[in-house]
Amino acid sequence: MAKLLFHLRNVPDDEADEVRALLDAHALDWYETRPGPWGVSAGGLWLRDAGAYPRARQLLDDYQRERRSRARETEAREGRQTFLELLRTRPGFVLPRLLAILAVIALTLALPWWLLRA
């Protein structure tokens, strides 16, 4: 019976590709389910043989520890991006979100006053 090994929700494409390659490199029989059209199901990587799960889980845990250490080394070397750097490099991403936050704050503050006035 098949066993879910790896959820694909919010997983970067490069990580999913590396996990697929890892499973292939270790000759594990797996298949992939795609996310549903409305985001209800996330999709995932499944093992066809549940008996191979402990071995696959150990490989995946080792891979994720290695990936986490690489990400931390990159962050330590390059540093984190500040808000102003993000605003300067991706204004089309930041400004609409910032305006939405300000609109929610304005509505939250104005609504009680408007209700009391009516």
Question: How is this fold's topology laid out?
Answer:
Blueprint lengths: L2 E5 L5 H13 L4 E4 L10 E4 L5 H26 L4 H7 L1 H27 L1
Antiparallel strand pairs: 1-3, 2-3
How much strand content do the residues show? 5-15%
**What best-fitting shape do the alpha-carbon axes yield?**
elongated
Largest pleated sheet: 3 strands, antiparallel
Rg calc: 22 Å
Give the ordered list of helices and strands.
EHEEHHH
Low-confidence stretches: none
Spatially, the strands of the biggest sheet line up as: 1-3-2
Count of helices?
Answer: 4
The overall pLDDT average reads 92
Q: Which structural category do the helix and sheet elements fall into?
A: mainly alpha
Helix content: 55-70%
Number of beta-strand segments? 3
Q: What distance separates the N and C termini?
A: 63 Å
Structure characterization notes:
- It is a single chain.
- By secondary structure, this protein is mostly helical.
- It contains four helices and three strands; from the N terminus they run βαββααα.
- The chain has a three-stranded antiparallel sheet with strand order 1-3-2, covered by helices on one side.
- Helices cover 62% and strands 11% of the residues.
- The model has no long low-confidence stretch (mean pLDDT 92).
